[in-house]
Amino acid sequence: MTGKKRILFLVDDFSKGGTARVVETIIKGLDKEYIPILACLDASGKLGADLQQRSVTVFCLDRKPGWDYALIFRLARIMKDQKIALLHTHQYTAYFYGSLAAILAGFVPIIFTEHGRHFPDVRKPLQVLTNKILLPLTAAVTAVSEAVKVSLINYEGIPAKRIEILINGIDPQPYEKTFDTLKLRQELSVEPSCFLLGMVARLGEEKDHGTLLRAMVLISRKIPAVRLLIIGDGPKKDELKKICLEIGIEHLVIFTGNRSDIPCLLAALDLSILSSFYEGTSITLLEAMFSGKATVVSRVGGNPYIVQDGVTGLLFNPGDEHDLAQKIMLLLENEPTRKRMGEEGRKLAYRLYTQSRMVREYERLYKSIIDKK
Fold first, then answer.
1. 101 and 31 in a common domain
2. What pLDDT band is residue 1 in, cutting at 50, 70 and 90?
3. Strands (E), the chain
4. What is the model's pLDDT at position 17?
5. Deepest in the core among 4, 12, 78, 98, taking most CB within 10 A?
6. Is the same domain home to 165 and 178?
7. How many angstroms separate the Cα of 136 from the Cα of each of 6, 107, 125?
8. How many domains does the chain have?
9. Average pLDDT for 40-69
10. Taking Cα atoms as reference points, which of 272, 271, 274, 231 lies closest to residue 255?
């Protein structure tokens, strides 16, 4: 094929979450030989509007509740009209709809990328059967971590030999700036002498903020000058605020909501926490590493592959507030170790988790598939 190759990126919801940010990073970093186009099953949000400002074509398909048959035909029409050379689907729902539409559009080559899993993960026999039908029509399957690959094997019935691991990466530049962290602490009513913890995550069940809140009770008994930022929004917000009242730590916890100044917030932290029940390759964990912050994260999913326990941070047993509290206090009480881990994490991030490395790997995959046509 000659000329620029038109790639359609298909996602469920582009208005929030780590998957949307990964796709945004790929689109922005693509070589000029590719023309990226974005389609969203649901909302496109601010990220979609930002891409449109960069002259990226964005389609919002307004998926109807339940099984939306008409969406398949709309998506197939987009692929035909836009002369799509390759469809890159992100997460399973996009893969399912995208595969059927790609068939109608003349068997457009498909990549399925799995970013994370629902908690708890279960095997669905009908989905496994569907995968056996779709896989022969799929050019490539990628997972963002070894843990996600294992889930695809165990719960989706996808053979290991069909799955390639392509680890997420982000642009380090926003985290290299110097921020007025004292001013930020003043805005948040956090004293300069207080230890400041933070967790950046959607307020959903899978992130298990409850364990972190219960750990705060234990931590505050030994280290009263400690505060916690809960950064993000989601369906569990009211429940989490209620828990804070019930266990008496409402004065220690600050719910910031969604913020656009994550690099500044991370710079103000003493320690970054991630208490999730499951993670693929957590974008917020990578952000903390590029910010030079030591991390305490749950020993689940892709976390142990990213955090080198005792070197760049500490791992704790998921759902165990006592273990979490102990690990946090260990680092709060040892500033040299905390600083050293943060710097080691930053070095590791620059070596393995940059935007440029991730985009070049996807471009290699795109080229190998498109050249076969």
1. yes
2. very low
3. 5-11, 34-40, 57-60, 86-90, 110-114, 140-143, 163-165, 195-200, 226-231, 253-257, 271-274, 295-298, 313-316
4. 78
5. 98
6. no
7. 23, 11, 18
8. 2
9. 93
10. 231
Domain with 296 in it: what CATH number?
A: 3.40.50.2000
11-20: average pLDDT: 87
Domain that holds residue 239: 173-352
Residue 316 three-state SS: strand
**Is 202 found in the same domain as 55?**
no
Rounding to the nearest 10 degrees, give the CA dihedral for residues 367, 90, 23, 168. -80
Residues 152 and 25 in one domain: yes
Helix, strand, coil percentages, rounded to 5, for the chain: 45, 20, 35
Q: What is the C-alpha separation between 244 and 233, in angstroms, rounded?
A: 16
Q: pLDDT tens digits, residue range 58-70?
A: 999 999 988 999 9
Q: Residue 283: name the closest of 26, 7, 1 by CA.
A: 26
d(CA 171, CA 160): 30
**Residue pLDDT, tens place only, 74-84:** 999 999 999 99
Closest CA to 272 of 347, 199, 331: 199
